Amino acid sequence: MLRVNRRYISICVLFCGLICSNGLAQISSKNRTRSVRVFKTNFEYEKGKPIKGTFQPTITSTGNGTIHLFAQGRLYNSHDNTDKVLLYTKSLDYGNTWSETEFLTPPGSFWGIASYVVEDTVTGKEYINVIFAYSKVKLFELYDELELESKFNINRASYSDTQTTILYQLTSIDNGTTWDRRVLKENFLSKYDQEGRYISFFTPVGQINTVKSGPDRGRLLAGGAIKFADEPLPDPQDIYDYNRTSSSFIYSDDQGESWQLGGIAPIGGNEASVAEVSGDTLIMIRRRNKDYPETNRILNRSYDAGVSWTQNISIESLPSPKCLGILYEDDGVFFYSTPVKKQRIRGWLAVSFDKGESWGGKIVYRGLFSYSDFERVKGTEYYIVAFARLHHGEFGLSVKRIHKDHLFDSHEQCD
Predict the structure, then answer these.
(1) Chosen CATH of 35-408 out of 1.10.230.10, 2.120.10.10, 2.60.40.10, 3.90.79.10
(2) Residues 6+ apart with CB under 8 A from 61
(3) Could you read off the pLDDT of 259-294 as tens digits, one per residue?
(4) Which pTM was predicted?
(5) Is 293 exposed, middle or buried (0-12, 13-18, 19+ CB in 10 A)?
(6) Which SS3 state, helix, strand or coil, does residue 63 take?
(7) CA nearest 115: which of 391, 337, 386?
(8) What is the domain partition of the chain in residue ranges?
(9) Which residues lie below 8 Å from residue 152, measured CB to CB, with a gap of 6+?
(10) 24: pLDDT confidence band, cut at 50, 70 and 90?
(11) Distance between CA 258 and CA 131 in Å, rounded?
């Protein structure tokens, strides 16, 4: 009898706890860890324009708990150089459910995407931003002068024949209901840098981190891949005409109104993430170029706010195939999301408590796990990881919510 009463009391306490709690406390343990497919494939943007890959997510959240998720929607096929539209969805309940998929751009060829939120210090209003790079040549082939003005706010006459890239941004001030579109202010594309290299292309990718200390406090850091040459090509058809690739970052000191180029890292890697360690000390982690067969990540450090970078260091404790990995900093802890098998499977969330010197972590998804992004949901102890399924998202794109304690309680072997 006593055993029954105890069980009864336990059930009542649990039931009352679920009823009386609110917000995230209502979410069951099962719901905290399950993955949800938010973007599918084989649906149409318009008749005759099917989405064949939902790829390279970027995720951010606002102070009211809304999670905003963007991704490439690849038209006709899942290849890198196909036309794309920008996909968008959001969750108002911490990732339990997601809104219907929206198309934020007309078709065009663009590459990596990155998102961030800034707050107006006077009004407290949050600005949700997503930034990416268009192929100028392909965009100008698809649209005439009037269409470029009306659909993109792009002035065709502002670009020469040798330019390849347009750095572009969408901004919402109403929690993702409406979006403004504009070309970003920059002073480095289609120009020579101090080393005499002609910078043809830069695209941010994944996570944009913020400097939280020192003289550059508030600076936005967007890592990515850069392409350059000794001189511009007379009539470039695409970024792939420029075969010299490395890694760099762009930064903004005016909350994303304008961007400048940081130092270029040594040859060896391309897609990169950058975060602050402390003050002027930055860390960059990047994927290896195809000519470098080792699977481990490359690490570089900067002690002058990104003006220059150390030589390449192979991170033995962070194995990964040739696939994008995303570096994210949260309260002095560094996270890195990447698959650990060359088939782009087994999603690994690596954690470093010593400023990137060593890494442990957890396998958070054992299935198809390609390009990903990772973000703490503002005001909570939960993180969201978003990841494409199959090589270029041919099986769609999923998200998974993870509690902080799960990542910190112990580490697993990643193989």
Answers:
(1) 2.120.10.10
(2) 67, 68, 117, 375, 376, 377, 378, 384
(3) 999 999 999 999 999 999 998 999 999 998 877 666
(4) 0.90
(5) exposed
(6) coil
(7) 386
(8) 1-33, 35-408
(9) 106, 108, 139, 143, 168, 181, 183
(10) very low
(11) 12
